[in-house]
């Protein structure tokens, strides 16, 4: 009896790198390919949008300063239809670039020039979040049966309930007043971290460590901007700022 065929090796992770500087684009692509990634490239924002629609990469690396359509605009266009992880790259590290990129829907950012090992660590962190949140794919789902009435937080099996907000920790779905909410992988990880410690104040470094997987001190602006995006989706009153300390999810 012939031996069964070995399982096919997993497909390499696909990245889309949108960078207008040819030298940087080629060098980054070569470096990332050495780590086993499959890298597609584009030299401007409009071409990047076309390539994104063609190949649907697992993760996007977007330069901020791009011709035709800048990285901020490209990020916004992608977020209209997709929750794939986005890592912004800025040559200046300017606060305005960082804030604009994160507000547009990016999950993280790096300042160029960036060490390849650091960039790969950020990519792996984003991909872990995306894998964890794979069940939050964007199809419209049925609301949970018999949603509990608004009120204090409750635990019902795998569902955590905070007023009109229901977090299904097994199915990785979130409902507000019975309507399913689409969260990016990072937003979902952040909400799950808050839900696991409801009523407990979590400082920014704890959130960077547990949500962003940073093994070093990250920029707290990443946390603040992601919290703002999450508030817009689940209700501004749901996540409370404890000035000088951090944030907590209200029970």
Summarize the structure.
The chain has 251 residues and is an alpha/beta fold. Helix content is 37%, strand content 20%.
Task: Write the SSE topology.
Layout: E1 14-18, H1 22-34, E2 38-42, H2 45-55, E3 59-63, H3 71-79, E4 86-90, H4 95-103, E5 108-111, H5 116-132, E6 154-156, E7 159-162, E8 165-168, E9 173-176, E10 179-181, H6 185-196, H7 204-210, H8 220-234, E11 239-242, E12 246-249
Helix pairs in contact: 2-3, 4-8, 6-8, 7-8
What would you say this structure looks like, in words?
There is one protein chain. The chain is α/β, with parallel strands linked by helices. It has two domains: 14-132, Response regulator (Rossmann fold, 3-Layer(aba) Sandwich); 143-249, Winged helix-like DNA-binding domain superfamily/Winged helix DNA-binding domain (Arc Repressor Mutant, subunit A, Orthogonal Bundle), CATH 1.10.10.10. It is built from eight helices and twelve strands. The strands form three sheets. It has a five-stranded parallel beta sheet with strand order 2-1-3-4-5, with helices on both faces. It is globular.
Helix content: 25-40%
Radius of gyration: 19 Å
Q: Kindly, what is the distance between the CA atoms of the first and last residues, rounded to a whole number of angstroms? A: 61 Å
Mean pLDDT: 83
Major sheet details = 5 strands, parallel
Q: What's the number of structural domains?
A: 2
Query: Number of helical segments?
Result: 8
User: Which sequence of SSEs, written as H and E, runs from N to C?
Assistant: EHEHEHEHEHEEEEEHHHEE
- CATH class of the largest domain equals Alpha Beta
Question: If strands are numbered along the chain, what order do they take across the biggest sheet?
Answer: 2-1-3-4-5
CATH architecture of the largest domain: 3-Layer(aba) Sandwich
